[in-house]
Input
Amino acid sequence: MGKKVLGLLILAICTMFLVMPIHAEELIQNGTFDENTDNWVHWAGGGGDVSIAAENGEARLKINNTGNEVWTVQFRQNISIVAGTTYVIKFDARSTTPRTIRFMLERSGGAQPYPVYYGPVDVDLTTEMATYTFEGTVEITEPNAHLIFCLGKVGRIGRVHTVYLDNVSITTK
Output
């Protein structure tokens, strides 16, 4: 009788571990912008001009000038990626005027052109906050990668506007 009870107990414990959710590793720091934009870097060049702040739990990126290229306004965070790993990239976004933004995972720094490990992906924003989810497997290990949102000139947008980002997340699958 004791062996049967022990066997059932072991089976119950094993089953519990099989049905428990596995928490994926989160790579992004401060993706909710609850108080600030710490851990994020913004950059503008080539005629681009942007100011950033945390506002109502979102990153507010006021784009005063998109510049002449997609990369002339950037918002990014450094991460480390591992070959053969599938990542889920998720974020909420909206814009005060409908526009397209681009994001990708690429090497941070070094010689140009920077290798792209996922993307580039163009995302059409509206004035309503929406959640965007993407999934991809990277083929190389890169300790100096970054998630980069390119908010420069994509399409015909050129006037002053504001892009809002929230709940930015990259997890392993």
